[in-house]
Amino acid sequence: MEFSTVQELCLHLISSAYQRCRLSEQICRLAIILTRSSSSHPSLRISISDTGIGSCLEEFQNLRFSSTDVADNWDGMLSLKTTSNMPDQLFCLREMVLSCPHIILIGIRDTEIHSYQINLKGSGSSRITRLPSNTKNGAKFSGSEAYLSSFVSRDLLLADIHTFIQKNIAIQLVAEDCDVPESRYEKVFLSNECKQSPVSASNLELLKSGIEDYVVKHGNNLSNKCNTCFPSWEQLKVGVGVACCTDNRLHTELVMEAVILISNVSTQNITCFREYDNKTEVLYFEDFSPCTISRSSMKTLESIDWKTYGLNLRGAVEQDGVTLLEWENLPTDTHIDVVLHIYHKQYPALDRSFLSLSETVKSTVIPAPRKMSPLARNLVKRAVKLALDDLKANHSQAFLSSRALQIRGYAPDLAKTIAGLILSSSDLDFQGECFSLLGLQSQEVGTEIVESCIEERIVSVIEMNDKKPHNYQQVAPYLFEELENPVQDSEFQENDFGPFDF
Amino acid sequence: MEGKRRRVQSETQAQSVILLMKIKEFTRALLTDLTNGRSPLILIDRFRSYCAVPNANCFCASDSPCGKEALTLRKKSRAHRLVVMLRVMLIVQKLLQENKHSSKRDIYYTYPSLFLDQSVVDQAINDTCILMQCSRHNLNVVSAGNGLIMGWIRFSEGERIFDCISSPNSVHPVPVHVEEVQDIISVAQYILVVEKESVFQRLGNDQFCNANHCIIITGRGYPDIPTRRFLRLLVENLRLPVYCLVDCDPYGFDILTTYRFGSMQMAYDTKHLRVPEIRWLGVFPSDSERYFVPKQCLLPLTAEDKRKGEAMLLRCYLEKEVPQWRLELKLMLQKGVKFEIEALSAHALSFLSESYIPSKIERKLIM
């Protein structure tokens, strides 16, 4: 994996740190600290530390830095301190706060804190240097700190990280800037403050909770939930879908998680900011990092049969690097948000020992970079469809397909006709039997009551039908439902039959 | 006579009671499905009078269903068909309860905005007949009647007497309530079915029935149900030979096959409508040479004629049951020309009644 700017590298390191935190399955802390110690020493120390599982060298061995831009002014040296990677023995020190940039780790049984220096501008086996390790002095913790010193502009880097975190609804994060005490910058992005997820929450649950939080804070533009627009959480209709496949090249499972959120916001409240109006911003993440959705995945999104869910997609457009879905006939108070996250289920080297990785480094075998696009296309489609199915399963009335809506249009006529068959029958016993099937007492029966009672049942059956997969056929396979005419159409369509043929 | 009439009436009433019961059973089953949250599934047998696979080992002639269609609430078109069928059933229930009759056009105008088109009502009536396993007249749905009759016959329809014998060349309508036809008396030697009213009138003008003891019927183009039912009734009762005279073009040929084999749309009820005894009297494509039809009367087949003729060649029953008919149709397509019955009158106005028909019957130039 090659980076051309320090900013890009930093975002990658943050993303890796987050993944280690997720894998620990405990509450962790991730700190990004940018320190300029004094004006006489103007380099910026960038520290990214986490209390997740320990790092493995494989994460770093294929990182390359190719920039020759003097503006970066970085020697390519990345320092790493980490406990070894032992995922089954982790535990959490919830209360620990990392206030000092040099304290790195929270951890467990491994007795050592390993230190490395990695030259990202170098090549061959000499680029990783193992430094003397420190003892934990009996403490149990795990974690990592990656840090580097560069002359990169603090403000530019801060802006990039800020944007990254703002979009990264999947990350629970503290970012600090303590350049000089009086200009301390502190911003906390917590996932869903209002609805705390349990420690054991899955990635998908966090993603769901994250998008809810993102939406109710108007795209994280507010610090807290907008109570004017979202007085209650019930306004949010959320559907989730997960699709998996095996990435044969890396022998790991590739997971695509999709969350679709539909919110109804009163249009009278015009004071609140809506960045993309009625369009849907598609938030896309790869391995916990926000990134731009590929063109092919965008086309896949367009190819989804949204009409099955009562939605009319006009098309997908890209606007300043943001993918937007435009809708037709979407009620003005309805807004749709979509987030997609594709990631490898197994974090690199979880299944390998630290030692074996060291061997890998020595033989300079570099794993192929991750390319997920071809697999992602299929996963996008499956996951989004599952999320839509989920929405429909829980809110069937709101997501009736256009076909079901048309069929539902016949419900009043159908109800009226069936009620007519019952009420116009001269057989009173038959009438009584039908009333009791409908749960009606004979004395309360009027035409309107019978009709509405039947219509209610018809509508419920149509909604139920719409939830089932569309290739569902109750009909025995020998039936040729689609075959309109068993003989040649050419012969049958014409005036073979006169008006009095009947 | 009065006794017979009463018997016919009570048979009709019994049939109505059975049908009303079936409609109630159907409604009850539908309601049970809906109240139990089940999507209704109504299977309707599908029939065909022929298939388009030549030499096929098919069962088209068996009158058995060849499959089923499903009416459900899963498809818009099927849902609409279900609504229309139920609405027709509702009308039929009222007709049967009140012992009234209605035409399919009357039914269409009951709810034109729902039915949208007459053909939709026609299909719904057919669906209802198939479901209820009955014929259309059992639903008390009848046509206005389009057929005409003349010749050596006398019969009654309910209380109405059709005394054609007293004036054999006078035109009478074909009875609509065929099930009420009784007391058929005839001294005819054969029945002649003609395609067109113009030819029917020509024969009347020529006093054809004076010289020939026969019964002449026309369906005025494609025959309607009463005409076909009545013809079948006559053939069953009188056991007379029956001949058919149609134009020498694909439409004439198709009308001929409709009399003999029934139509595709009414395939479910074909066994009550077809007349397998019917013989083709003319006009054959080969007649143009035999009877010296002037060249100017031979018109080229249009593209539409050719398409229709080619499609008809594939009908399974032609090869199986009337290969000679098929050969004539093939000849028509090979020659690429068609001509009307009236073309035979080019020699003399009375050629048809004085020469053509009698000579055909006498010399057995029929198929």
Features:
heterodimer; A: 502 residues; alpha+beta; Heat Shock Protein 90; 3 domains; eight-stranded mixed β-sheet; seven-stranded mixed β-sheet; 12 helices; 19 strands; 29% helix; elongated; B: 367 residues; alpha/beta; Arc Repressor Mutant, subunit A; Dna Topoisomerase Vi A Subunit, Chain: A, domain 2; 2 domains; six-stranded mixed β-sheet; three-stranded antiparallel β-sheet; 14 helices; 13 strands; 46% helix; globular; protein-macromolecule adaptor activity (chain A); MTOPVIB_plant (chain A); Type 2 DNA topoisomerase 6 subunit B-like (chain A)
Which SSEs are present, and which pair or pack?
The complex is a heterodimer of chains A (about 500) and B (about 375).
Chain A: E1 2-3, H1 6-24, E2 30-35, E3 44-50, H2 58-61, E4 64-65, E5 77-82, E6 106-108, E7 112-119, E8 128-135, E9 141-142, E10 144-150, H3 154-167, E11 173-177, E12 185-189, H4 203-216, E13 236-247, E14 252-264, E15 280-286, E16 289-290, H5 295-303, E17 312-319, E18 322-328, E19 334-344, H6 354-362, H7 373-394, H8 402-408, H9 411-423, H10 428-437, H11 447-467, H12 489-492
Parallel strand pairs in A: 1-4, 2-11, 15-19
Antiparallel strand pairs in A: 2-3, 3-10, 5-7, 5-10, 6-9, 7-8, 11-12, 13-14, 14-19, 15-16, 15-18, 17-18
Helix pairs in contact in A: 1-3, 5-7, 9-11
Chain B: H1 2-35, E1 41-46, E2 67-72, H2 76-98, H3 104-110, H4 112-115, H5 118-132, E3 148-151, E4 153-157, E5 160-163, E6 172-173, E7 181-186, E8 190-194, H6 197-205, H7 208-211, E9 214-218, H8 225-238, E10 242-245, H9 250-261, E11 279-282, H10 287-290, E12 299-300, H11 303-313, H12 316-321, H13 323-335, E13 337-338, H14 351-362
Parallel strand pairs in B: 8-9, 8-10, 10-11
Antiparallel strand pairs in B: 1-2, 3-6, 3-9, 4-5, 4-7, 12-13
Helix pairs in contact in B: 1-2, 2-5, 3-5, 11-13
GO molecular function, one term (chain A): protein-macromolecule adaptor activity
InterPro entries (chain A): MTOPVIB_plant (IPR034566)
Protein name (chain A): Type 2 DNA topoisomerase 6 subunit B-like
